[in-house]
Amino acid sequence: MVGASEQVAVVGGGVIGLSVAWRLAGSGRRVVLVDPAPASGASWIAGGMLAPVTEAWPGEEAGLALGLESVKRWPAFADELGSGLLNATGTLIVAVDAADSGQLELLAAHLGELGRDVERLSARELRAVEPGVAATVRSGLSVPGDLAVDNRRLLSALLEGCRRRGVRFVREPVVSVGPGSVALDESTVECGVAVVAAGAWSAGLHPALAGLVRPVKGEILRLRARRGSLPPPRRTVRALVESRPLYLVPRPGGELVVGATQYEVGYDSDVTVSGVADLLADARRVWPSLGDYALVESAAGLRAGSTDNRPVIDWLEPGVLAATGHHRNGLLLAPVTADRVLELVASR
Amino acid sequence: MVGASEQVAVVGGGVIGLSVAWRLAGSGRRVVLVDPAPASGASWIAGGMLAPVTEAWPGEEAGLALGLESVKRWPAFADELGSGLLNATGTLIVAVDAADSGQLELLAAHLGELGRDVERLSARELRAVEPGVAATVRSGLSVPGDLAVDNRRLLSALLEGCRRRGVRFVREPVVSVGPGSVALDESTVECGVAVVAAGAWSAGLHPALAGLVRPVKGEILRLRARRGSLPPPRRTVRALVESRPLYLVPRPGGELVVGATQYEVGYDSDVTVSGVADLLADARRVWPSLGDYALVESAAGLRAGSTDNRPVIDWLEPGVLAATGHHRNGLLLAPVTADRVLELVASR
């Protein structure tokens, strides 16, 4: 037990837990990561947009500031992990019906007020930039600088990075987290600090998180362009389809991630027939040649929603930190979250 | 090499190859089955309807007779392999639009002429029998006696039965088949008789099959009723949806197999976005509560189409038999095919 009080136990092996463990281990801490199946949850299912700007909305300026701070840190964060993780071709946002066009106008005006670069595109200009956009799409915005990350390559790189830095993995489910210890089914992991980074499962692990974090289900599809298919977009394409948000995120090799529904249905991660049918129908209204693509995977993940749509990154009690509640922004906020946890642990 | 000339080599580990190998081994023959991945092709993807009657159509009486002969042999065949493989609750055939209703009338008249039991059901009577049928479905037929087989349990039982009877498995791809030998990449399997049962891949294995057998792609979905979902039908439900054929085949435990598209696209087994979207849309028009089901699997298989829609079960040359070209009827015709191959080998 000598030295167990110096150990940091990270509970959760999604992008937040892995980033925190990797950063802590890089600063010389002894780290143990506890998760029955690291790199398999919502971060594995995700689309990987690092898009604070195009997710901006009046009234959510604080969230935007945090996102912008994190996106600034992303290139260095990714560089340290390996090459080819980021796609920096920017984002198009497109509107399918007249009401959707109205929403884009509001967004463009808001982004202008914030001093962000944004270009309004007519239907014709849109198709000059991305010829696969449907002829029925009405208007769009081009937002240069938005990044996307290949979430699966990132998770592999983080796992590998953790291993190289000596992080120890305990592949077991966690029952509860308290000061100085992480309780498993049959044993206990002793530690000086425990970090709860268990995403949608965090609420059940510490009383201070009960009611603060809840599961928000998202369904996603992975498609692949086939020989003879029109190719996928080069940029991330976000769309409003009769007010329903949709995104198409290209990956190297002709793969395209399509998301995402949002349902508040508790711990249910079934992929439903209606969810898949709706996603496919909306996606084909934006990018008609998808009909010919191969459907490679359909999956659902549970994001960690919080009461104010912002993450909880703070002490819950002496010796227990939380880094959870990142909702749709776990990948985006991973660098800033890991840095903040590092500061909190150091200032203890 | 002593005794190699007495050995039968079965090329292909789908339902036909496995049934042939199992039967031959049961009659005392020494059998080797060659397939890189037995029980993984079109038979694994299939719906499992054993439905010669509801597939009947004027002009295809010879096919019907063969199907009826095989379906008669199915209960004993299944009994020998294990219990719970067959579902004998019968079939409903339903029509979605007025033209589909007209087609059902033709089918009912044809079946009547053949002396088959068939009951016409109004929309209301249909829903008394299967309450989940859509309110917009116009009419239907009830065909008692049609069987369905759980294809995946069947394939497992055949694999196990082959093992118990001493069939040897060579898990390698086959390059060609000739009298006395099956050529692999780096070696040869010697035999007295070779049986080509390689489904859609048969055409490339022996010159006499070139042009006789071709791949016909079929896409299938596996759904699962969720807690709170309306349950799946108890019977197999076949439907015509604006002339497109569709089937819903229930499995134990709330699973439902939905098929099947048919495409003539060569050796392409991608599941396409449009294929899945079309199947889901048609299926929901017949059984609306499917929207709430979980989408468990989407897959495509390549059936072995033949030029006259009937299987090729005969000598290609001395020492080389074919048992292929079963198209949509591989599962249905497995017992009669295995028996016929047994006779051909015995009478040699």
Please write out the topology.
The structure is a homodimer of 348-residue chains.
Chain A: E1 8-11, H1 15-26, E2 31-34, H2 42-45, E3 49-50, H3 61-81, E4 86-87, E5 91-95, H4 98-113, E6 119-122, H5 123-129, E7 139-143, E8 147-149, H6 151-164, E9 168-170, E10 174-178, E11 181-184, E12 188-190, E13 193-196, E14 213-224, E15 236-241, E16 244-250, E17 255-259, H7 273-286, E18 294-306, E19 312-317, E20 320-324, H8 330-346
Description:
The structure is a homodimer of 348-residue chains. The relative contact order of chain A is 0.21. The first copy, chain A, has helices at residues 15-26, 42-45, 61-81, 98-113, 123-129, 151-164, 273-286, 330-346, and strands spanning 8-11, 31-34, 49-50, 86-87, 91-95, 119-122, 139-143, 147-149, 168-170, 174-178, 181-184, 188-190, 193-196, 213-224, 236-241, 244-250, 255-259, 294-306, 312-317, 320-324. With 348 residues, chain A is α+β, with helices and mostly antiparallel strands. Chain A has two domains: 1-86 and 148-212 and 308-348, FAD/NAD(P)-binding domain (3-Layer(bba) Sandwich); 91-144 and 214-306, D-Amino Acid Oxidase, Chain A, domain 2 (2-Layer Sandwich). In chain A, the strands form four sheets. The first copy, chain A, has an eight-stranded mixed β-sheet with strand order 6-7-5-15-16-17-14-18, with helices on both faces. A six-stranded mixed β-sheet of chain A has the order 9-2-1-13-20-19, with helices on one face. Chain A is built from eight helices and 20 strands. The radius of gyration of chain A is 20 Å and the shape is elongated.
